[in-house]
Amino acid sequence: MRILLAEDDSGIAGHVASSLEREGYRVDVLSTGPEVWEQGETEDYAAIVLDLGLPGLDGLSILKRWRSTGVETPVLVLTARGSWMERVDGFDAGADDYLPKPFRTEELSARLRALLRRSRKNKAGTKSANRFTLDEQSRRITFDGRELDLTPLEYRMMSLFIDNPDVVLSPIELASQVQGRDDDAAKNAVEAMIARLRKKTDSEAIETRRGFGYVLPGKRP
Ligand code: CA
């Protein structure tokens, strides 16, 4: 499987590339923004590992350009800073996952495996749970057949529920999966997002398990 590793720190790039190659991936390493942008658009990669701080053109701009031109390759974003706003910007720009530096290569390869697994599953088509249907190709979710107008983070949360029907997801888990961090602000943001999702669908669509979290029942009521 071919992976594009976009990283201008040659130490990190060499280390990550050799560890991924040991796991059997074919890794192309690029270090400047414009070439990453071009190659990500023209070549067929199973996934892209994208450092946000690249010379010439920053990773967020590259990602936005890819998504606006229909490049759907799963992207795992790396950043030195790891700030809250940067994470949100990254997801809004179309990142599939997020890893703050410094990281262990084991962590990166576990995230990458999960990303590839999700992307293979997604290629199978649509998934349904309860009154929701998710189409990963077009990144659309419908509720009783009606297409929902969702922000990227709402989409991310809703797809977690659809992927895990009948599983109670705790606020901490939702915050770390959706927002990339699990502090109080992130947990509050999760609760606000649940309220918005209920407004956009049905007040009973996502159920509360008091003291535990939230659940999307797999079967229709
Ligand atoms: Ca960098």
TrEMBL record:
The lineage of its organism: Bacteria, Pseudomonadati, Pseudomonadota, Alphaproteobacteria, Hyphomicrobiales. Residues 124-218 form the OmpR/PhoB-type domain. Keywords: DNA-binding, Phosphoprotein, Plasmid, Transcription, Transcription regulation, Two-component regulatory system. Residues 2-116 form the Response regulatory domain. It comes from Rhizobium leguminosarum bv. trifolii (strain WSM1325). The modification 4-aspartylphosphate is found at D51. This is Two component transcriptional regulator, winged helix family. It comes from the Bacteria. PANTHER family: REGULATOR OF RPOS, RESPONSE REGULATOR PROTEIN CARR. Transmembrane segments: none annotated. GO terms for cellular component: cytosol; protein-DNA complex. GO terms for biological process: regulation of DNA-templated transcription.
